[in-house]
Amino acid sequence: MSFCEMFEHHFHVYRKDLGGHARHYLGGLLGRAGRKNLQGIEADVAGSDYEGMQHFLSGSPWDHGSLMGQVAGEADRVLGGHADSALYVDETSFVKKGSKSVGVQRQYCGRLGKLENCQVGVFLAQGRGERVAAVDFRLFLPEAWAGDRQRCEQARVPEAERRHRTKTELALEMIVAARARGSRHGWIGGDEVYGN
Q1: Residue 47 vs residues 28, 50, 187: alpha-carbon distances, Å
Q2: Each residue of 116-143: pLDDT tens digit?
Q3: What pLDDT does residue 195 have?
Q4: 128 closest CA partner among 186, 69, 190, 68
Q5: What phi and psi, each to the nearest 5 degrees, are found at residue 152?
Q6: Predicted pLDDT at 1
Q7: DSSP secondary structure letters along 51-89
Q8: What is the rounded CA–CA span in Å between residue 34 and residue 59?
Q9: 8 Å CB contact between 130 and 79
Q10: Who's near 26: CB < 8 A, 6+ residues apart?
C-alpha cells in the first residue's frame, strides 16, 4: 500500500506513529469480502491488532479533517478542472442493532427503502466520467440526539457537533468547504432530496 505513504504524516500524533493501524484498517476495508468490523480485519490482516485499531478509531486524536482535505486536493488534482468534472452529493444508511452508535435511531434507511434503526451519513464526492473519489462526509445527527446532552457525552460527540442540521444543510456545508478549498468542478449533482 505504497499509495498510503503520502498520507502518513496525518497519523503522527505527539510522539506516536499510528500509521500502522491506519494501513491495517484500510487493508481490511479494501480486502476480501466478509465482515468489515475490527474482529474480521484482525483475522484477515497479518500484523493487525484489535485493541490498537480500536484506540486508533475511537480514542486517538489524529485530525480526520486535515486528512480529508488532502484527499480532496488529490481528487481535484486528478479529476478537477474539466467541463465534465462534478461534485456529487448523496447519503447512505448504516443499519444498526443497538442504540449507542452516534446518530442511530429509527429513521428512513435508503439502503432498505423503509424505516429502520440506522445511522445516516451525507457524502460529497468529486468525479469525472467513471472515476469518482469521496472528498467529504458528515454524520446526520437527529434532533433527538442533538437535544440529549447526556447521550452525546456518553458517545463522545464533540461539543461543536452537538447540533441538529438537516441533510441539505450538511450537503451545503460540504459544497461551501469544497469551493473554499478551490475545487474545480463544472457542475454539482445530487439526489432529489438535495434540491434542484
Answers
A1: 11, 10, 43
A2: 999 999 999 999 999 999 999 999 999 9
A3: 63
A4: 186
A5: -65, -40
A6: 53
A7: HHHHHHHHT----HHHHHHHHHHHHHHHH-SSTT-EEEE
A8: 25
A9: no
A10: 1, 4
How many whole angstroms separate alpha carbon 82 and alpha carbon 64?
28
Burial class (CB in 10 A: 0-12, 13-18, 19+), 46: exposed
User: Quick one: cell of 29?
Assistant: 476495508
DSSP class of 172: H
Element (H, E) at 174: helix 167-181
CB 52 within 8 A of CB 80: no
3-state secondary structure (DSSP) of residue 117? strand
Domain ranges, ordered by start, for the chain:
2-58, 64-194
Cell of 138: 458528515
Give all strands (DSSP E) within the chain, no chain letters: 12-13, 16-17, 86-95, 105-109, 114-128, 131-139, 187-190
Q: How far is CA 79 from CA 87, 125, 150, in A?
A: 10, 11, 43
Distance in angstroms (rounded) separating the CA atoms of residues 92 and 81? 27
Across the chain, which has 196 residues, the per-10-residue mean pLDDT values are: 79 82 88 79 88 86 89 95 96 94 95 96 97 97 96 93 96 96 95 71
